[in-house]
Amino acid sequence: MKKKTAPRTSASHDLTYAPKNGYERATPADLKHCEEINKAYMEYIGKAKTEREANDEAILLLEAAGFRDMRDYEVSGTKLVPGDKVYRSSEGKTLMALVIGRQPFEAGMHIVGGHTDSPRIDLKQNPLYENGGLALLDTHYYGGIKKYQWVTIPLALHGVFVKPDGKKVSLSIGEDPSDPVFCITDLLPHLAADQYKKSLSEGIPGEGLDVVAGSVPTSEKDRKEKFKYNVLKLLNSKYGVKEEDFLSAELEIVPAGKPREVGFDRSMVLAYGHDDRVCAYAGLKALLDLKGVPEYTACVLLCDKEEIGSVGATGMASNLFENAASELLNLTSASYSELALKRGLQNSWMLSADVNALFDPMFPSVSDKKNSAMLNHGVCVTKYTGARGKSGSSDASAEFLAHIRRIFDRNGVVWQTGELGKVDQGGGGTIAQFMARYGMKVVDCGVGLFSMHAPMELAGKLDIYMAYKGYLAFMKDGRK
Q1: pLDDT at residue number 8
Q2: 119-172: pLDDT as tens digits
C-alpha cells in the first residue's frame, strides 16, 4: 500500500499549524527519488561553477532531451505548437527554456526563474603583476562575500579569453586532481596584532584578495618582471594567449573541488554555488521531466547578474525577458500585437526560485525562529523579501499564495514558509521585483541554506528534492 504524504497539520481536526520535518512526511518513493535527483544535481553543480558553464551544461541537458534552439524557428519562420520544446540563450549567460502549452501565450505562462551567477572573485582586466618573488593576479570580488572566508583555501580559475577575431579560449584550472590550484595568502597570527583589532569586514581588504599564480622566474636573463613573464609563457604555451588578451577576458576565481555529501547519514550537500544554482537546476530538471503537454506554457529562466542587482544586458532588470517573450508570442500566434504581449506577461504565474536562509542554531539571535526556514522541512515559500520595511520586495498576494498552497498540497510537496532574518537585522532581494513589474503573480520559492554566500554552502537533500517536486507540480498543474 502506497504511503500517503502526511497533512501539514499534526491532525486533520487540529486548528493549529505544526510544520514537521520532511523525513516524517515523505513517502518511500520520495526518498528514493530524492537520492536520484541529488546525485544528478551534484554532478551538474560540480561542472557548472560559472554562469557560462551553467548555461552550457543546461543546453547539453536540454538538447539531449529534444529541446531545440528557438532561433532556428525564428530564422525559418516555423510556428511553435503545443508540446514543442525550445530554448533561447543570451550571450551564453542567461537561458530561457520552454515547453509550449495548450493555452495561447495571451493566457500566460507558468515560470520558474532562478539565477546561475554566484558570489566569487573576478580578475581585473589587467591582472598579472609580480611582487616579492611571486606572480600575482589582481582581483575584484563579485557579489556579497565575507572576504576573510576566501583566504588560504584552494581556488580554481574558470573563464574565457575572447580574441579580437572572435575566437574564444575557455579554461578551467584547479578542478582535475592533476591540476594545480591557486590561493590567497593570509597573515600569520604571530604578526596579526593590528589585524585582530579590525572588524571582520576590514580584516581582509578588497585589494588584499590577490591570487598567488607562480613563483618561478623565466630563464631569460635580460627579461624584466621574470616571475610574471614565466606565467605568460605558460599561458601562451597551453592556451595561445598573451597579456593583452586579458583585456577581453572574463576570468573567475572560485573554490576548487567537487560537491560532497555531509553527515554520517549523507543527508546534506556541501558545494560552491548553491545560491542559486540549486534552485536553477531544480527548475531545469523539473522542466526536463515534465511529461506530455502542459496546460500553460512552462518556462524556466536561468538568469545572470542577480548577485549584483540583475543589471546589465543579461540581467533581469533589462528588457531581455520581455524581448524573448515577444519572439515567443510571434512564434505561437497567428498575429503579433503589443496588447497580446502585455496580457500574456500579466497573466503569467511565476515562482522566483531563489534560496533563503535556514535557522542556524549556531547563530540564533539573527532569526525569528517561528518564521524561519528549517532544514529538511521542505522547499521554502517566501511571501516577501527586501530589507527592514520590505524595501526591494514584490510582496506576493494572499490570493496567489493560496494557489501555491493548493498546488503543493495536492501534489504531495513538503513545503514551509520563511523570511530572511529578523526585521531590522538585514535582508535581501531576488528577481521577483523585476518580474512583478509586468503585473504577473510572483512569489519567492526555493531551498534554504546554511552559510549562504560562503565559498562552500550547505543544503539539505530533502529540501533540494522538494524544490524540484514543487517546481514540477507548478509547471504541470492547472489553475483550478
Answers
A1: 52
A2: 999 999 999 999 999 999 999 999 999 999 999 999 999 999 999 999 999 999
Residue 372 carries which side chain, given as an amino acid letter?
Answer: S
What's the rounded Cα separation, in Å, for the pair 416 and 462?
Answer: 13
Residue 2, amino acid: K
State if pTM tops 0.70.
Answer: yes
Reading the block at residue 267, the C-alpha cell is 543527508
What is the model's pLDDT at position 12?
57
- How far is Cα 7 from Cα 84, in angstroms, rounded to an integer? 36
- What span, in angstroms and rounded, lies between the C-alpha atoms of 141 and 147? 8
Distance from C-alpha of 319 to C-alpha of 324, rounded to nearest angstrom = 9
Is residue 304 a contact partner of residue 318, using CB atoms and an 8 Å limit?
no
Number of other CB atoms surrounding residue 32 within 10 Å: 11
Residue 257 is which amino acid? G
Domains and CATH numbers, the chain: 22-118+272-476 (3.40.630.10), 120-255 (2.30.250.10)
Which regions of the chain are under pLDDT 50?
Answer: 1-7, 9-11
Pull the grid cell for residue 2: 502506497
| pLDDT for residue 64 | 98
